[in-house]
Amino acid sequence: MQRQRREKQGNGFTFIELMVSMVIASFVFAGIYGVYTIQQRSYTVQEQVSEMQQKGRAALDYMVRDIRMAGYNDPNGGCTSRNITSWNNWVAQPATLTFDTCNPVTNNQETIRYDLLGNTLRRTVDSGTAQTIAEDVEAIEFYYALESNTTPGTMQSPSVTSVTGVNNIQRIRSVQISLLIRSTFPDRKYRDEILYQPGSVLDPNNIPAPPAWDINEGATDTNGTGNPPTIDPDGCDDELDRCHYHRRLLITTVKMRNMGLD
User: Fold this and answer.
1) Residue 13 and residue 53: Cα distance in Å, rounded?
2) Comparison of pLDDT for 37 and 165, the residue scoring more
3) How many separate helices (H) and strands (E) can be counted in the chain?
4) How far apart are CA 10 and CA 62, in angstroms?
5) Strand, coil or helix: what is 34?
6) Of 201, 209, 200, 208, which is closest to residue 176 (Cα–Cα)?
7) What string of DSSP letters covers 158-200?
8) Under 8 Å between Cβ of 259 and 71
9) What span, in angstroms and rounded, lies between the C-alpha atoms of 22 and 219?
10) Is 65 helix (H, G, I), strand (E, B) or coil?
11) Highest mean pLDDT among 5-9, 58-62, 148-152
């Protein structure tokens, strides 16, 4: 009896099986890539936000340390000045703060000045070179409380008493710093529509409240205030528009413990 030999068939894939496998693989790789891009964007945004917050806190630390020493008088007679030489109107933008203090290390009198040049916050000691404290600062305000002339220990807002004149300057007892800082680079997938308001506007006792910050370099938006941050009449459609930056508004109050001691 003659045996029939069977041809051994190969174990390869058919064309249909290959196509199905490729489709499934493409979905898997697309999902992996989507997760990767989301994680990469999240990491980039968090890195920029962390850098922005770090710059803002470092700037506040500088200013808080200096303002607390404003009017400091060396008990040994090395420094005798307790004057805040000038304090710009609290609605001015950019604000400038200049005051005298005594360096506790050298016992030399110093005049410290803070000002905002463009988006750079600077610190100058006496007539020296301006030192950059923080960049990407869009606005800053120094808002103060005055001790009442008639009732010591009672605070008054600038809406009650202006700070013009040396006598009123010497009555400053606390300073509220409002600092608006933005990220270094824009985020084209982010849209900032927040109305940023400094401490003077948020103070319920300040009636009537001053206008909100104009952070759009003099231009006005649809609300007529230059705030929220966009100057494009077509809206937030360009990846370089101001509305694509992340921002943080930091507000802190400094007690001036060396004022009013005479």
Assistant:
1) 57
2) 37
3) 3, 9
4) 78
5) helix
6) 200
7) TTTS---SHHHHTTEEEEEEEEEEE-SS--TT---------HH
8) yes
9) 54
10) helix
11) 58-62
Distance CA 101, CA 258 (A): 10
Amino acid in position 186? P
Residue 146 has pLDDT above 80, yes or no: no
How many angstroms separate the CA atoms of 75 and 230, rounded?
52
Average pLDDT over residues 170-183: 84
Residue 58 CA, chain-centre distance (Å), reads 11
Phi, psi of 66 (to 5 degrees): -70, -45
Taking CA 257 as the corner, what is the angle to CA 248 and CA 166, rounded to the nearest 5 degrees? 90
Comparing CA positions, the residue from 79, 77, 113, 78 lying closest to residue 95 is 113
* Pairwise CA distance, residues 160 & 255, whole Å: 20
Q: Residue 250 has what pLDDT?
A: 92
CA 20 to CA 46: how far, in whole Å?
39
DSSP characters for 105-127?
Answer: TT--EEEEEEEEETTEEEEEETT
What tens digit of pLDDT does each residue of 190-216 get? 888 888 888 888 877 776 667 778 787
For residue 113, give both structure tokens: 């000045």
Selection from 177, 162, 172, 156 nearest residue 99 by Cα: 172
CA distance 37 to 191: 19
